[in-house]
């Protein structure tokens, strides 16, 4: 339901949801050209603050949350982060192979503290409330809090933006900034969520090694077992998480590779906590044991982004596909045939 409020001066009905989406989808190419305290920029930042605050309140596995995340992933340009970092002036030497902390200018230090605080408190509304009168320092703090909430709630979204940066000096500065101010509290939160998670399965367990930035998922049933290690980078979530198999017992090489690939896909594509990605991956291989067939395109039962099941069946070969995978196949192959039997779909 769309909530409507009557503007008595203009006699127009304002559709709040449409207004919010218009700001979230505001062309970043135009926003980048505006002054740092321009009204459009302020409105867009506030819209993002409201959206992220709403996402934070939703249950991780709720359909509402998944729909919002899908909307952001599909409709919104990650280049909003370019606008955010216009408010966080960073100085850094060119990469030299050594990890050095980025040099912060005064307003950037306020932004850094706001980023860290948003991650720790899971809130950024205080920076919206203290925005007026609007000034560059207030906008820098709001920008910092937005970045903190984005890497907490939208790690894949932020990583997509970061990996496409062409300016190596800027990339190095942002990585250093994130590693110094944002990643430590974020990693601690990730480890705590994993440790506190209840997976309700005596055959499956998860342990955490905080000092090594590692999470170990262990599955053991009768004469079979596998240990998969998730290694998080010190600048998480800007760099990819690595997943490795350290122990295997009674499981074929094909299944080992498939489970390793599926866990890697879930933790790398997850816009949310690692704990939720592990839970989704566990559900994925449980459905495999139940006899549910995987999607022949992505080789996963649950889609790595929207967690849907393969439901679209070919009338000829009867194989079922994820809707998103099939759409991508049609788009990239310029065909409308079944990926397996080539019969028109």
UniProtKB/TrEMBL annotation:
GO terms for cellular component: cytosol; RQC complex. It is found in: Cytoplasm, Cytosol. One of its GO terms (biological process) is ribosome-associated ubiquitin-dependent protein catabolic process. It is an enzyme of class 2 (transferase). SUPFAM superfamilies: RING/U-box. PROSITE patterns: ZF_RING_2. SMART domains: RING, RINGv. GO terms for molecular function: ribosomal large subunit binding; ubiquitin protein ligase activity; zinc ion binding. Keywords: Cytoplasm, Metal-binding, Repeat, Transferase, Ubl conjugation pathway, Zinc, Zinc-finger. InterPro entries: LTN1/Rkr1, LTN1_E3_ligase_6th, LTN1_UBC, RING-CH-C4HC3_LTN1, Znf_RING, Znf_RING-CH, Znf_RING/FYVE/PHD. CDD domains: RING-CH-C4HC3_LTN1 (cd16491). E3 ubiquitin-protein ligase. Component of the ribosome quality control complex (RQC), a ribosome-associated complex that mediates ubiquitination and extraction of incompletely synthesized nascent chains for proteasomal degradation. Component of the ribosome quality control complex (RQC). Belongs to the LTN1 family. This is E3 ubiquitin-protein ligase listerin. It comes from Eleusine coracana subsp. coracana. The lineage of its organism: Eukaryota, Viridiplantae, Streptophyta, Embryophyta, Tracheophyta.
């Amino acid at each position: 339901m769309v909530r409507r409020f009557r503007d008595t001066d203009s006699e127009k009905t304002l559709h709040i949801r449409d207004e919010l989406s218009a700001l979230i989808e505001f062309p970043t190419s135009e926003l980048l050209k505006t002054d740092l305290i321009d009204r459009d920029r302020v409105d867009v930042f506030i819209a993002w603050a409201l959206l992220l605050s709403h996402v934070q309140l939703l249950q991780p596995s709720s359909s509402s949350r998944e729909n919002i995340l899908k909307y952001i992933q599909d409709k919104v340009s990650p280049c909003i982060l370019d606008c955010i970092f216009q408010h966080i002036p960073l100085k850094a030497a060119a990469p030299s192979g050594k990890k050095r902390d980025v040099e912060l200018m005064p307003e950037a230090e306020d932004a850094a503290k706001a980023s860290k605080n948003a991650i720790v408190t899971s809130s950024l509304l205080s920076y919206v409330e203290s925005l007026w009168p609007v000034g560059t320092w207030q906008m820098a703090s709001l920008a910092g809090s937005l970045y903190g909430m984005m890497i907490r709630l939208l790690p894949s979204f932020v990583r997509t933006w970061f990996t496409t940066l062409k300016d190596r000096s800027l990339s190095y500065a942002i990585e250093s900034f994130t590693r110094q101010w944002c990643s430590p509290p974020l990693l601690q939160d990730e480890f705590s969520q994993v440790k506190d998670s209840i997976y309700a399965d005596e055959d499956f367990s998860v342990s955490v090694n905080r000092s090594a930035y590692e999470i170990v998922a262990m599955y053991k049933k009768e004469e079979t077992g596998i240990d998969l290690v998730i290694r998080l980078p010190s600048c998480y979530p800007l760099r990819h998480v690595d997943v490795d198999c350290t122990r295997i017992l009674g499981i074929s090489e094909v299944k080992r590779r498939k489970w390793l690939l599926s866990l890697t896909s879930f933790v790398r594509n997850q816009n949310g906590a690692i704990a939720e990605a592990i839970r989704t991956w566990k559900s994925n291989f449980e459905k495999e044991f139940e006899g549910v067939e995987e999607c022949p395109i992505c080789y996963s039962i649950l889609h790595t982004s929207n967690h849907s099941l393969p439901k679209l069946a070919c009338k000829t070969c009867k194989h079922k596909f994820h809707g998103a995978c099939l759409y991508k196949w049609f788009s990239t192959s310029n065909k409308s045939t079944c990926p397996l039997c080539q019969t028109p779909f």
